[in-house]
Each structure stands twice: as C-alpha cells, then as structure tokens.
Automatic annotation (TrEMBL):
Name of the protein this chain belongs to: AIG1-type G domain-containing protein
Top-level taxonomic group: Eukaryota
Family from the record: Belongs to the TRAFAC class TrmE-Era-EngA-EngB-Septin-like GTPase superfamily. AIG1/Toc34/Toc159-like paraseptin GTPase family. IAN subfamily.
Domain AIG1-type G: 5-77
Xref: Pfam families: AIG1
Gene Ontology MF, one: GTP binding
UniProt entry keywords in alphabetical sequence: Coiled coil, Nucleotide-binding
Residue runs in coiled coils: 212-246
Amino acid sequence: MTYGDLYEQESCTDFLDWVSDQKSGVFREFLQECDNRIVLFNNKTSDKEKQEGQLMKLLNIVKTLKLQNCRYADEHYFTGKTNRDYLTVQAQKDFIEKEAMEGANFINETLKILLGSRGSDRDILLFNDMLNKANHLQKFIKDKDKGTGVLGSVSHYVSSIISSIENELQIYNRITEEKDKFKLKVKLEAAENSLKLQKIREEYEHKIKKDKRLEALKMEKLQDQIKRMEDLKQSWRREMNNLERKHSIERSASNQQYQLLAKQFDEIKSLYEKQSRKERKKNIFTKMFQKSK
C-alpha cells in the first residue's frame, strides 16, 4: 500500500496496529482476501534503511505466497481493482475536490458576470469558452473518480454549471434566430414598401406630366384670350382715337361757326350802337329779313 509518507505525517499509530483496528468495511474485506498481507510503502523517503526494510517486507510476503502455492494472479488484481480505485480516490478526495472546486468557482463567478452584462457577441464567445472549461473540468473529475462515485458531489456541481451555460447559449441562439428572422422580415417589407413607393412615385410623376400638359393648354388658352383682349383694346383705342378726331373736327367746325356768329353779332352790335334806335331796328329787321331769305 502506497502513500506511507502521508500516513506518517497524519497518524502517530503504528501502521499494523491501525490495520488491526479496521474491523469492518471494504478495507477490512480487502485485507481478509489478502490474508492480512500488507506492506506500507513510503515512496518519497530518502532513508536507505527504510527503503530496504520496505522491500524486504514485500519479498518476505512473496516468499510466503510461494510456499503456500497461492500466488497473486492478474485475475486477483482486477477483482480488487474497484476497491483499490475507491480507496485511492478516497485518499485523494480532498485534494481533487479542492482543485476541482477552485476551477468550478472560477467558472461560476465568470458566469455571474456574463449574466449581468449579456448581449454582445464577445459575451457569447466567453460563454463558449466557459463551457469548454467546464467540460474539461468535468472530464478531469470523471478521470480522477474512476467510476467510484467518490467525487459525485463536485461532479454534480460542475454538471449544474454546464447545464446553466448550455441554457444560456440556447437562449442566445433562439434570440439570435428570432432577430435574424425579424431582420429578414424587415428587409422583405422594406423591399416591398420600396416597390410600392416607386410605383406611387411613377404614378405621381405621370400625373404631374399630365397636369403639366393640361396646365400648358390652359396657359395657351389664357394667352390666346389675353391676346384677343389686347387686340380688342387696340381696336377700342383706334375707335376712340377716331371718335376723338371726329369730335375734334366737329368742335373745330362748331368753334369756327360760333366765332363767325360772334363776329356777325359784334358787327350788328356795332351798327346798332351807331344808328338810332329806329334806324337800328329798321336795319336789323331788314338784315334779318334778308338773311332769312
């Protein structure tokens, strides 16, 4: 049996006395199968005398087996392998659990930080990295446990961490898938809306062109009406000018006639003043009579 160095450090009892005190359990059964043949080895000692003493004890047991015609064969070795593994793992349990728990706690604390700031692609890479570390740690525990179940509690703890990380990755993958579907939906709707908008724009431009043609026709008609109005105004001006010239001629003739009458009146008045009233009347009646003829 190895690990004699640890036994010597942790126990003050003689090894054979300790063996005798093991009255029950797997170790007791194992000793009974070996007929209490056991040697404690300290593989780390540098004491030559102790090394030789351990070797001599082992050789003496081997000689005893030969005399009794009962050598320890491979089948005996494999029969006791499960118990040996159990005892080996049990002896190393504290050291293995300490190392495993340190790794598990590091992964767990990192996981808490990631859960508090989830969302980025970098976080997902860290989640995957933590999952790989947890799987490696689980493999380490499984290899050390050797199927004995001694490290079952720490193995269960690491399994729960792995399950938590896998759940987070599943949630992320589902969210990513939903985001991708939503982006695709938005892209398709944007393309559809773009086509609709293009169609509306074309219809609007066509309407504008049509309205421009109608506006051009209206403008042409309006300009034609304006031209006709201008022509009519010109006609009115010409007619007005003609009337003004006609009226001017008529006024000029009337003025000439008036001036002639005024001149005649002045002449008559002058004659009237020179002649006597009787004579003036006579002359006036005579002239008026002559003039009326």
